[in-house]
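Q: Joint fold for the lines below.
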Amino acid sequence: MNTTPRLLNRLLLAVVGLIALAASAFGLALLVLPGVAPWWNRTAPRIGDRIADVRTGTTLEGQADTWLWIALAAVLVVVIVLLLLWIAAQGRGRTGLFASVDGRRGRRATASSGDDDGSVRGTVTITAAAAEQALKAALLERSDLAGASVSTWEIRGVPGLKVRVFPRKGVPPYAVAEEVSRLVEALDAVTGYRTPVLISITSGARARFMRTERVD
Amino acid sequence: MTDDPLDRSTAAGTARLVRREMHSSRAVSSVVTAVVLVLVCLVLLFEAVLQAVGDRPFLVDLDAAAAWIGAVPAGVPASLLGAGSFLLLVLGLLLLLLALVPGRRARYTIPNGRAAVVVDAEVVASSLARRARTAAGVAPEQVLVTVGRSSVTVQIRPTSGMPVDADAVRAAVADDLRRSSVEPAPRISVVVAETGVIGQ
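A: Joint structure:
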């Protein structure tokens, strides 16, 4: 439902995993393979000399050390910002707008207002809260549901509803699905929009600890 | 209603919703990885700034660390290096597996004309347990239903002296599964325990 960047998540996890694997392979090779440790001890000083050359080459007059430290700090700041953006991208996509009709474009809200045609100037907006609460109120009237929550999410540019219902123990899911989808169709008729809907039938903690039996 | 310009729900969109709900988004592991990387970067940043200003290192002396890496099998006991490498190996494999494995959640989907419907396996199990219990005529505590990805196991401990008709239970469970037509359709096995329990 949300716009979590799933492919990016997996790509970045793979990259970090490969880096960790490479480092561990290096450590294990140093221990296990007899030729690797001498080779590394011969190679490392040469790399160190190269780095020292670069450091002296980039040290400005009057400065104690190279300005590359500042460049490194700047790069690290950029990396940190990118990582924070990655975190912020998780679970995004909730929206507060269920539907909006621009009067001048002449769109007609079908079932809601028969006599109003689209030529009226102005905009009609249905907030997400209106649709959510209408559906939730209808869901909470049902005795076979221990709870329900409705939220609105942007799915590929259009708002869609996520309906989470927590049926009591032992309630057949197909019956719940059918009844919830009937309620959704009623909402369609009221708002005039046929939005994408996800019905998620889950076992919340509340349903889990409640008794199976109830008096009908 | 399909020709309606206000119709924003498509079959492809519904299928996409179901697919996304059935698989893990890897959000938690991503956030954990990112937080760890941010912490490492913050330490490095701090040390880099200290070096640039010409101050003394705070936590990690970058020069000493570089020298240590250059001399590596020498400056550290072999057991520690081995353990550290092994830890990194496990961590790397874990992250790689998280990236590559599909990460299916314990959920099923029910075909529905209007919406994308996703059901937790636990809900399916409790519904099946109820059907199995009424078919077998036993108390709720005597039925245990396990719902796996492609199989359903119903374990029943009968009440002493009252035999349980396993075929009737199987038929009831199959009927429940058929009516919800969960996908993928699981295989059913009913196990009736040899020993009974005192009537409840």
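Q: Anything notable?
A: The first strand of chain A starts at residue 97 and ends at 102. Confidence is low (pLDDT under 50) at residues 105-115 of chain A.
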